[in-house]
Write a structure and sequence with these properties.
Largest sheet: 7 strands, mixed
CATH superfamily of the largest domain: Spore Coat Polysaccharide Biosynthesis Protein SpsA, Chain A
Structural class: alpha/beta
Number of helices: 15
Distance between the termini: 57 Å
CATH architecture of the largest domain: Alpha-Beta Complex
């Protein structure tokens, strides 16, 4: 039985928590923002790393991704809770999942895995930063800081600031008010769990329920007589906004290639780009050797160590474009490499969406349409949430963001198409072994783009943003021999349903692409299409 004396808590909230690819899973090579944040955390010897997620339709997918990318010996315990009103409440509710619900006020442990001799220390860390701390400086009741005097600090108004005495004992800590040059780097510690929970409950009893920050918990404990110190970290990298994150990616080490081997680069927005199917979670089956990309690499005489999965379900086509641009700039792709772009089905032009057929559709009026547009019947509504959820609880993403905004879905579809084709043309000119794997009928895509070009007066100016002109022959591009088409069916979804038996352990009865046979058939078909064309 393991002793439990130090717990690291990483709350994963944010406005996009219910996206298949929330910000904490922003890609960074074969890693993510969360995993980069925890890159060297093992040196602190935490007994447990508690990851707190909000319940959402994509929770299982998010957990799979977190575990899949966990290459370090981290003992992640991932719990999910209902969305909260503040960072401190997220930590509080996450901690409650570890304790006996019959004794909620005493926070009695309900686990049999750990030996509890006394209440463990808790350390709380933000996921959108990276800090370097000497393990000798890891102490309870500490706020780790950085100074504005170091320069190059952004979002000054969003941080919490510390005032200390000459002995670095904290006298005051204030949220979003610059009372000194010292600010918290988003890493805090407490002597014991009930210090945190009692302080939170005391604040809540005053009628304060929203925007309770960790700094408020610390100040409440200072008022109750506890002492907190502050220690400056050795280094601090802030990813609090997208510009800071992109700047970090620019400095990220380029790909370390294995010898002179060619690589297989897979850029995808769906299961075709990355998957952790149910069978991969079972102990008796390996996690990766059944993946279609590894099968294909083996057929092409490419080492499995040289397969790069650059994205995963829920990525928007624009995120894929950013990743490709990053790899080109950093010479991560060589001329002899094989590249497969799989932009998913055309209605998945953004992430975090489900599709319903239009009300005027001639058949199956109210049925869910996950995969394809009905030919000749235009677009479907864009809905956020679980497809099986009560329709009253569904949210239209675009109208929710801006109720007065009328979104032209034809233009959004066009952005998906031209972004995809633009990436393919660019890569094809530089790297001859570039292939585009459309997951549905190319003739349908051709038909729909033709209708849009004929119906939209301002389409030429739209094309100008993609450095194309109205005479650009997209029909010729769609006939490129390196575009992989599903010749026998109108879409890969139909191919899957008609050709792939379901794996016995696959509890998602109608998801053949998650079965071993589905992956085997993908790789076999792709090899037949790709191998004769490789230069």
């Amino acid at each position: 039985m393991d002793n439990l004396s130090k717990i690291l808590i990483v709350p994963l909230g944010g406005n996009d928590y219910n996206s298949p690819t929330p910000r904490f899973l922003n890609p960074c090579g074969d890693s993510s923002m969360l995993h980069q944040s925890l890159d060297d955390i093992e040196k602190f010897n935490f007994d447990m790393i508690l990851i707190i997620l909000f319940n959402n339709p994509h929770l299982e997918q998010q957990i799979n991704r977190i575990n899949y990318l966990n290459e370090k010996p981290h003992d992640f315990k991932i719990v999910s809770i209902e969305p909260t009103n503040s960072p401190a409440e997220t930590v509080y509710m996450g901690l409650k999942t570890l304790f006996n619900p019959a004794l909620p006020h005493k926070f009695s442990w309900k686990t049999n895995h750990y030996k509890i001799t006394k209440q463990p220390e808790i350390y709380i860390k933000d996921f959108d930063e990276k800090v370097d701390i000497n393990p000798k400086n890891l102490h309870p009741n500490t706020v780790y800081n950085w100074s504005l005097n170091k320069g190059n600090i952004t979002d000054v108004e969003k941080k919490s600031y510390i005032r200390t005495n000459p002995n670095n004992t904290i006298l005051n800590i204030v949220e979003k008010d610059v009372i000194s040059s010292q600010f918290s780097v988003g890493f805090y510690s407490f002597k014991k769990i009930t210090d945190f929970t009692t302080a939170f409950e005391h604040i809540r009893e005053k009628g304060i329920t929203n925007n309770i920050y960790i700094s408020h918990i610390i100040y409440q404990l200072i008022l109750s007589g506890q002492q907190f110190q502050t220690i400056e970290v050795d280094d601090y990298i802030d990813w609090g906004n997208d510009i800071l994150w992109m700047n970090y990616l620019k400095t990220f080490l380029p790909l370390k290639r294995v010898g002179d081997s060619s690589y297989l680069h897979i850029y995808g927005c769906s299961h075709s780009g990355y998957t952790v199917p149910p069978w991969a979670q079972e102990k008796h089956e390996p996690k990766v050797n059944q993946f279609w990309g590894n099968h294909l690499a083996n057929s092409l005489n490419i080492s499995s160590d040289c397969v790069r999965i650059n994205s995963f379900p829920g990525c928007s086509i624009n995120q894929i474009k950013q990743k490709i641009t990053f790899d080109i700039i950093h010479d991560n792709i060589q001329k002899e490499d094989v590249i497969i772009i799989s932009p998913s089905y055309s209605e998945r032009f953004g992430s975090n969406i489900f599709q319903y057929k239009k009300k005027d559709s001639p058949s199956n009026l109210d049925s869910v349409c996950h995969w394809n547009f009905e030919r000749m019947h235009g677009f479907v509504n864009i809905i956020e949430g679980d497809a099986n959820q009560d329709s009253q609880k569904q949210i239209n993403r675009f109208s929710e963001l801006n109720p007065t905004l009328e979104v032209d879905l034809n233009i959004i579809f066009s952005e998906w198409f031209y972004t995809t084709i633009g990436m393919f043309i660019m890569l094809r000119k530089i790297y001859p072994n570039t292939f585009l794997w459309f997951l549905e009928d190319v003739d349908f895509i051709n038909l729909h783009i033709s209708k849009i070009m004929n119906n939209y007066v301002g389409f030429n100016s739209f094309l100008g943003e993609y450095k194309l002109d109205g005479a650009w022959d997209y029909k010729k591009v769609l006939k490129d021999e390196n575009i992989i088409k599903c010749k026998t069916h109108d879409s890969w979804d139909t191919f899957i349903r008609e050709n792939c038996w379901e794996h016995p352990s696959d509890d998602r009865k109608n998801d053949g692409h998650l079965g071993i046979e589905g992956h085997s058939k993908f790789s076999s078909y792709l090899y037949e299409q790709i191998n004769p064309k490789i230069k």
